[in-house]
Structure formats: C-alpha cells, structure tokens
Amino acid sequence: MAFADKILTFYRSLELPNLPAGVDAMNPYQDATAYDLSEQFYRRFYSDDKPRRIIMGINPGRFGGGLTGVPFTDPLKLEQRFGIKNDLKKKVELSADFIYTMIDAYGGPKKFYSRYYINSVCPLGFVRDGKNLNYYDIRELQEAIEPFVVDSIQRQLDFGIDRKAAYCLGEGKNFAYLDKLNRQHGFFKEVVPLSHPRFIMQYKRKHIPAYVADYLKKLK
C-alpha cells in the first residue's frame, strides 16, 4: 500500500472522544469536498513507499488544514500552487505562508514532500466560540484526547515513518507535551523543537530568513 493510501485510510477513520462543553471538533475528512482536495494532494506527492520523517504541529486551524484536510495548506495555496481548484473561501493562513516559504527554500514541494510528512500532535482541530483552540488551552480537553493522540501517533508510524527524529512545531507547550509522550511511549529517538510558524509570522516577521535557515539546518 502506498504512503498516500495509508494517510487517507487513517484520516477517514478519525473519530474524537467526547469533548468538554463548548468545544467543537473540526473533521474535514468527513466532508466530501475537503476529503477530495486532500486526496488529490496526497496522491500527487505520496504515491510511493518511501520512508519519511514527520513534522508535527499543534492541531489544524480553521483556515488551513481544518478546512482543506492538508496541514498548513490553505485553499489559496492548493489552487495557485498545485492547480487543485476549489470553491472554499480563499483566506490566507499565516502559518501556511511560512511553511511554503521554507519548502521553497528547501527545494520545492516535490523534494520536500518526498522526505517529510506533516501532521499535528492532534490530527483534528478544535474551535470554541468560533475561534481556533489549541488542544493544550484547556486541561480537560488535553486529558480527554490523550488516548486519541497516542493512538494516532502509533498508527502513523506504520506509514513508513523514519523514527530517528520527529520535528515539533512549537518550542513551548506543544514540544513539552510531545516530548513527554515520546519519553513515555518511545515513538522516536528524539523530538527536535522548531519555532512555530504562527509565532514567526505574527511576532518575528522581519526575521523570516533566519528562521527558514534554522529550519533547513535542523531538517536532515
């Protein structure tokens, strides 16, 4: 089974446990339109059996992966960069802007995606009061989803993930949590923290070249 088939089978099976009151999940893979978009993307870049290292964000946002089904890829990038036409609202996601700046510096999508697979610590996203919610923002949410998170990581290892290193987007709470889980379960030999794209684009925009260089230095 190709890497793409394993990804798509995994996504279609995702179901979250009961969530705290007021928290809603985003599951684009239950939506026919979003699933079709993600399928086009994954079949383009992952129709092989090459091993890849994993890069893990926090959880999908409502303007990127939570909408398109492709982590850190908004509807505009799907259409403009890859010709994957869609009728979704063409709102730019800041994190996606940085990720694709980095991917271009790496050598372009074809080269990058042949070596890396991007997902998140929690592969489904959350909203509360119409706004993005990180899994660690509410203790009860983090506790509720931990078995789901552990199972999701374990299942993705079977895709053909190179377990020598995983890369964590976010050097604070996301890294602390993933590193804790890794010490408990031994998923990877090491977890390497990277500055989160949203933090870079919101607070360190003048230093984007330096952050891109840091990513390229750490991504081996």
Explain what this protein looks like in three dimensions.
Pfam families: UDG. With 220 residues, this protein is an alpha/beta fold. It is 47% helix and 15% strand. It contains 10 helices and 7 strands. The protein has helices spanning 3-12, 32-45, 65-68, 75-82, 94-106, 109-113, 139-157, 173-185, 197-203, 208-218, and strands at residues 24-26, 52-57, 116-120, 125-128, 131-133, 161-169, 191-194. The chain has a 4-stranded parallel β-sheet, sandwiched between helices. Helix 1 runs antiparallel to helix 2 (32-45), helix 5 packs across helix 9 (197-203) and helix 5 packs across helix 10 (208-218). The radius of gyration is 16 Å and the shape is globular.
Write the layout of secondary structure elements.
Blueprint: H1 3-12, E1 24-26, H2 32-45, E2 52-57, H3 65-68, H4 75-82, H5 94-106, H6 109-113, E3 116-120, E4 125-128, E5 131-133, H7 139-157, E6 161-169, H8 173-185, E7 191-194, H9 197-203, H10 208-218
Parallel strand pairs: 2-3, 2-6, 6-7
Antiparallel strand pairs: 1-4, 4-5
Helix pairs in contact: 1-2, 5-9, 5-10
